[in-house]
Amino acid sequence: MFGVYSKSYSSLPLSPPSSRSTTFIRWFWRSKSARILVLVYLSFSVVFSLLHIFEYTGRPFMPLPQKTNTADLRIFRTYDTKGISPLDEMKNSVRFNKMHSKMSQFFTDSVHPYYLRGENTPETDDITTIAFVTENRLGDLLRLAEMWRGPISATFHIPAKTIDEKDPIIHKSLSNLRKFFTENPILRQNVDLHIVAGPISLKQNPNVLPRPTNFHLNVARFFVRSEFVAYIDHDTWPTSSTREIIKNQKNLLLQNDVIILPTFIFNENSTTFELPTTTEDVKKLIEEGSMGLQDDGWELNRGVTDYESWKQGKLYMIQEYELHYRPNFVSRKGGSIPWCTERFDDNKAACLFQIYISGSELWVVPDAFLIRHHLNPKSHLLIPDESKWAKGLNSRMYTRFYRESCIHYGRQLLMAGDWETAKAQHLKQECSRVLTNSGKGLIEKTNPFVVDLAASMSGTDAKKRSSRVPTSGSVSSNSSHKVKKPSGGAKLSSNDVALKDNRSG
């Protein structure tokens, strides 16, 4: 046993592994080549460090170039804020990020409010019309200001790649803008102009002119300085008395209702294009076959606005609302009026649908009318920009928006305790198919809220809503006239297919 143990013990290493590594380190350090390598490394490190120290501390007047953050750039206002509030000097990106935390950074960084501020402060109960302006349509803004003779909140979109005022495109646009306002006192007096800068094409092509979108409408509405807002399409003109007539019906607006502005247009038989100023002038032109009441999606004089009721000259309520009805209208800036959904480009039908199913009535004041006529033949907005593919996509988006809005506002009314009141009648009429359908897969019946909402809808037909009689003004009693549905000859808008989708199957 002892002999075996001695043999195995003698085969073990004579020293532990640590002694071997120590021996190698001693050998490496005594090597001349190794010491040269270490010296070269240390020398290089010292020289490199000294160079950086000199670069940061030895050249104080030549700072290193820094990256430009577009969020820190501002297009400064053209007037003195006089230090009224510290918020006046807050960067737009910070301000909008606090107010609209869910908004995209592109929008919060590219909006510059009140670049030009009107000298006249509007009265609280005044009506401000909102407008969309591009550099080639400044003449239209002047024409609108001369006809409206009141406050205007306009969004001016500059299709530039940056939002820096030093950018040549922005510098040129703003120079032309300031010169135009200087030459026209009525613009300086009544127009608040807000800048939106940024490319509007995926290829960031600054030569592509922007078009109005629901986002532009919301920006202009957000900075309105009066209580009421007029949504008026481009190339649509009010009479000199339209604003004052609407102000006389502000009691309707204060109860969160909407005033529809009937819009008339010259047809192909017209030989004169002088804009009428009274209802009698309009009726005469219609009788001559030169003009008609326009509702997009219907033939002239056969739309939802109801020409037969308008002819009577009395205040009346819209009786046959349609999903894609998109008139010009006036509403409150705030109150319970929803903001336009920004998933679409230019879609006032979506704006009005949200307002309607939230409980607002639609009134028509016959004397407050508009005339649509293209006085600027060079406007890029006259060129159709929507392809057949885009129309189909927008139609599907609008159908989905319709369903989502029904559920959203139905839940709001139910939680607010207004489901059994007259305020919910519009939603019950327009959304009954969405809220009660169980076989088309439109909604998830497993959702507890939808189950409760659908149960409350059972047995509810399309009842006639109870009219809220206004405190002033006479109301037309003609409710027997039925609006004709869009015929085959009527030109359908991009969202008309949505109504067909919701009624088919």
Give a summary of the structure in a few sentences.
This protein is of the alpha/beta class.
Average of the residue pLDDT scores: 75
Strand content: 5-15%
Which spans of ≥5 residues are poorly predicted at pLDDT below 50? 1-16, 59-74, 438-447, 459-505
The N- to C-terminal Cα distance equals 98 Å
| Strands in their spatial order, largest beta sheet | 1-4-3-2-5-11-7-12-10
Total DSSP helices: 18
Question: What characterizes the major β-sheet?
Answer: 9 strands, mixed
Going by helix content, strand content and strand pairing, the class is alpha/beta
Q: Give me the count of strands.
A: 13
Radius of gyration: 34 Å
Helix content: 25-40%
Which term fits the overall shape? elongated
Label this structure with key terms:
single chain; 505 residues; 4-stranded mixed sheet; 18 helices; 11% strand; disordered C terminus
